[in-house]
């Protein structure tokens, strides 16, 4: 696993454990939310200054962002967007809705 992927995984994992949204982390770290998203998707190379800001906002040392040990074998699932929950698996017809 490369450094970008390691940082991406750790930032996301720690953020979710702290119950922070990307927006919340961005506000705490004083960076753009879209930039947090790019970091978590390994789409950019954050500077040392940005890593320091992220670590401070996450209440960890910067070196923790490079830690190869995972806190959880699989990162927690993100909550789904505003999708409607399916009520049943049976097919509905007009007559059953009346």
From TrEMBL:
One of its GO terms (cellular component) is cytosol. Residues 80-98 have a biased composition (Basic residues). Pfam families: HTH_3. Keywords: DNA-binding. It comes from the Bacteria. One of its GO terms (molecular function) is DNA binding. Residues 68-98 are annotated as: Disordered. Residues 11-65 form the HTH cro/C1-type domain. This is Transcriptional regulator. The lineage of its organism: Bacteria, Pseudomonadati, Pseudomonadota, Alphaproteobacteria, Parvularculales.
């Amino acid at each position: 696993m490369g450094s970008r992927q390691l940082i991406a995984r750790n930032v996301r994992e720690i953020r979710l454990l702290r119950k922070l949204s990307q927006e919340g982390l961005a506000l705490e770290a004083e960076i753009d939310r879209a930039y947090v998203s790019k970091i978590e998707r390994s789409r950019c190379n954050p500077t040392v200054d940005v890593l320091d800001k992220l670590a401070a906002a996450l209440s960890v040392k910067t070196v923790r962002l490079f830690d190869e040990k995972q806190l959880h074998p699989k990162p927690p699932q993100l909550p789904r967007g505003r999708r409607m929950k399916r009520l049943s698996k049976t097919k509905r017809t007009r007559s059953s809705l009346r």
